[in-house]
Description:
The complex is a heterodimer.
Chain A: H1 12-23, H2 28-38, H3 42-51, E1 63-68, H4 71-75, H5 78-89, E2 102-107, E3 119-121, E4 124-126, H6 131-142
Parallel strand pairs in A: 1-2
Antiparallel strand pairs in A: 1-3, 3-4
Helix pairs in contact in A: 1-2, 2-3
Chain B: E1 6-11, H1 14-18, H2 21-34, E2 41-46, E3 58-61, E4 65-67, H3 75-84, H4 110-113, H5 131-136, H6 141-149, H7 152-162, H8 174-183, E5 190-195, H9 204-211, H10 213-227, E6 231-236, H11 241-256, E7 261-264, E8 269-277, H12 287-294, E9 318-322, H13 323-335, H14 337-341, E10 351-358, E11 364-369, H15 374-381, E12 391-396, E13 402-405, H16 415-420, E14 429-434, H17 439-453, H18 459-476, H19 482-498, H20 502-506, H21 509-517, H22 519-527, E15 540-544, H23 554-558, E16 564-565, E17 573-574, H24 584-588, E18 596-600, H25 608-616
Parallel strand pairs in B: 1-2, 5-6, 5-9, 6-8, 10-14
Antiparallel strand pairs in B: 1-3, 3-4, 7-8, 10-11, 12-13, 12-14, 15-18, 16-17
Helix pairs in contact in B: 6-10, 6-13, 7-8, 7-10, 9-10, 9-11, 10-13, 17-18, 18-19, 19-21
Amino acid sequence: MTAKAAGRKRALIQVLQDIQDRYHWLPPEALERVADVLGVPLVQVYGVATFYKSFSLKPRGRHICTVCLGTACHVRGGEAIMEQFERKLGIAAGETTPDGAYTLERVNCLGACALAPLAVVNGRYHGQMTEAKVEAVLAEAEKDEVS
Amino acid sequence: MTAYRAHLLVCAGTGCVSCGSFEVRRALEDEIRRRGLEREVLVVATGCNGFCERGPILLVQPDGVFYQRLKPEDVPHLVEEHLVKGRPVKSLMYVPPQEREPVPLMKDIEFFKHQRLIVLRNRGRIDPEKIEDYIAYDGYAAAAKALGEMTPEGIIAEITAAGLRGRGGAGFPTGRKWDAARRAAGDTRYVVCNGDEGDPGAFMDRSVLEADPHAVIEGMIIGARAIGAAQGFLYIRNEYPLALARIGKALEQARQNGLLGKDILGTGFDFDLEVVRGAGAFVSGEETALLASIEGGRAYPRQRPPYPAERGLWGKPTVINNVETWANVPPIIRRGADWFAGLGTATSKGTKIFSLVGKIANTGLVEVPMGIPLREIIYGIGGGIPGGREFKAVQIGGPSGGCIPKSKLDLPIDYESLKTAGSMMGSGGMIVMDEDTCMVDIALYFERFAEEESCGKCAPCRVGTGVMARILAKITAGDGTAEDLARLEALAASVRQGSLCGLGQTAPNPILTTLRYFRDEYEAHIFDKRCPALVCKALIAFAIDPETCIGCQLCKKACPVGAITGELKKVHTIDPQACIKCGICLKVCPAKVHAVRKTPAVAGAAGSPTASTPTATPEKTGEGR
Lengths: 147, 625
């Protein structure tokens, strides 16, 4: 994954994205390797990895639940949906369940405002969400085959 | 080429895809094959039509019949009736709010009728994954003209004469930017497309990239020729997977057709484009921050001047325009500056795409001529507020913009009028709010957003947005004082003046406009400890009306904290101490019963401090679960 970017400092973000896509987080060993191969100081690799929101320095759950809290979702009750996910999963936004099954995240707009309020679970979009639908959405996710 | 008697144009924008338009397309293809119509009827997946509220959408051409909210199970009936028997299916057509009769034709639907499509001209009529479709509608004719017949100076003169201004926010004249880059010293120059559309509530750039990626590429080829760039970059948000896929495919096709790479169209001009995926930082939409991100670093903005047109990527002159601006370029070159300048107002030319979202009947993307009154967009195209509620405000321009109240509904929408009203064009997100929206809560929402997205480089933005958010949180919790308003105003002025980049400089706008137009709501929170819209949890209470409660137990079962007691068929009650004011009981209470009521909290009532925590302090949301 890092080979094609060897020595190319500019490729740092793209390489981290590839790693994130594959492992769903950035393991420390991977960051050290990236620093080596690209010839970028490790501090800079960490600087970039912590700056951008799409990178995670902690392992994420097998199922990813994202609740959109863009303005359109906010005015249509997105916060209440987030709170219901928090209650059902027993974790706060940004956390992963202790068994490593679920990670709950917030996002500031996915640009699908007609579907507000919106939740995305394992890549599937659930529009016009209600608190009552949360349970069914989670039950559906449970059936997904995920690594 | 096969001539088909009918084209079925299935919308494949993100909105429709999320509602299942690919399943509808598959059902259509299956049904057409089953009936042996595949030589007569062609199914095409198009880009976003804009009327996302009604997805999945199907347009039948050449009839122009518009079907909406389709499900795969509707398909056999639709094909049988419309395509075999020639009888359009009324039950699948659009019925305007408050009306009973469906409107069969797309061109007669209010949402589409008032629009003027330039940037979105190809939406819903071409397959964005086929370059042939784009070319069939004069695609790349402008590039051929610019490269073959025009001088770089001539191209810039045309763009300048057209009066095109940046569609990403500030509205800087595009021609002047290009001219500055062309005149800047050095041999290497770059063009960049800003597709880091981070404003919550705005999705026009995503839609353009999804519906007509070649228009953006063509615009960039012309821009590159004008300033003398051999390389360009498209920086696109990672949250837009479909847009990334479509632009990737479009680049490949453009290269195969000799429209990118060496010696484009045999004119000796070399130019190529590379896609850079954003990594999730609102500040990377700021031009200098975006350039830092392309260079592989953190997206920190820097002081301007020097502007990127003089010193941009790797210190070289760089023209950076947003998606919508680039997509405006080909029609201007093809049809001429005079045509474009004939649209819009004295200072704002052409059209602008707005995303109409929030408490509005017709959510979606609309392209309208500059200068159109706000009222026409909200009530004409948008169909007004759903549920018989009253319009309160529209928030324009995202976290940098401001709220425009009802009294300004006749405001013509252009760069200058919006600025005078305290808002800004921004990227064109319009979030409509009704009487159930609390303006203090909205200001808090935006200030929290700004605090979270502040990159931290300069103190006024990093610290100031946080302090403003805390003051607002205090007000929504019912603990505000008269001095807080003065403090907010003073802080807002400092943050505006002292911040390094646009994010910080405009971050106080949501506060300043709500203070200007909705000061009474702030005062109600502070002096009366009352939230007029009944939104702020610390200032509201839920109660069950014993007169109307039928004891159905729905609310009792739904309450996540067991705060509701009552036996079957007996009146239920809510324990105010245990209630977390999530509002679920109100939503599950049957509409015809309507026993659960939201009321202002009684002053001094117990429970308000605990109830305020979920909205007031997000960092504590993990507690007690």
